[in-house]
Description:
The protein has five helices and no strands. The chain is mainly alpha-helical. The protein has a domain at 26-81: Orthogonal Bundle (Arc Repressor Mutant, subunit A), CATH 1.10.10. The termini are far apart.
Amino acid sequence: MNEFGILLPNPMLLPFLNPATIQKFSKREKICLYHLVRGKTIKEIASALYRSPKTIETHIEHMKLKLNCQTRSELITKILEPVDISDEL
């Protein structure tokens, strides 16, 4: 949590995320993603981050473009795909 009381993502809470995928995102996109994968609505994320819902939607659209996704569900599915650690060994 930062000095404004905003819950920030902790990389240790999502160890199964593909680091190469996450590196494509800006800091704000990562924070939105953190809340999104936990089932928060656009309005809830906007309220938590003191931003407008349109701003949050824009961040999500940018993430979808970066990962070539059509829907939020597809975005979340791609983000949560297990990482094959055998590739890294």
